[in-house]
Amino acid sequence: MADFQNITLEVADRIATITVDRPKALNALNPDTLRELSDAIDRVAKDDGVKVVIVTGAGDKAFVAGADIAAMVDMDEAGGRGFGEAGHAVMRKLERLPKPVIAAVNGFALGGGTELALACDIILASDHAVFGQPEIKLGIIPGFGGTQRLARKCGANVAKEMILSGNNVKADRALQIGLANAVVPAADLMDEALKLAGKLASYGAVALAAAKRAIDEGLDKAKIDDGLQVEQDAFAGLFSTEDRTEGMKAFIEKRKPDFKDR
Ligand code: CAA
Question: What CATH number does residue 222 fall under?
């Protein structure tokens, strides 16, 4: 559809494919891209012809390399809070969409990229996919739901290891820890995603929606919105720290950060 600049939305055979397409920033999520994603999710929600959604990234290098650091570097606490809220709203909308969503992770899925995949129902990874929550290196924490969804999906031990160390996780380990559902050769990723989507699309939409809702609402007995509020306050608060400014400037200036613990 012509009115998107940073994503594409294609519908064929009852499957909608949303592709984040900002090659110059490895598909990083800036505010405009979040708005477009939100709009695309609204469109597929309303389209009765769509039964299953695939989310992927353009190119063969990145799914989504995170929230856009250049967009965040000059944000103050209010800006960080607004950006975090916008990210939460998009991920929540995707998670609550009453249609199955498959993430086809075709490369780097870092920070907001892993968080986008976590908001999907099933994660198919290419064999060169790399997941990670490297925010700690920027003086922040995951702000698009990662502290809550990674812990829910893979357990607190994996979430703490990944979020506190900032270490990346390659596709084979992502499979081991239950982050990815399957790993396939890069060249086969979209075919496999379409094959799985086609299978799901052959089932009844009402049962698909009920299954998704039952699993998510059951898991949400310890309310995710309460957890997301804790994350949002912590994420926004870090935008007032010198370390956050230093961490993001250092990334943009391509040097190591010099953190002062304040
Ligand atoms: N935001 C903005 N720009 C980004 C970006 C991001 N998250 N990730 C990559 N880019 C840009 C780079 O700045 C670079 O731009 P220029 O060509 O203009 O210099 C371009 O994309 C290509 O990236 P690299 O040259 O760095 O490519 P590489 O192959 O050497 O490394 C990479 C790839 C390991 C993914 C590296 O780009 C990287 O570490 N990116 C940042 C990952 C990150 O920290 N993500 C978390 C962001 S914070 C977040 O997501 C918070 C949240 O939860 C809300």
Answer: 1.10.12
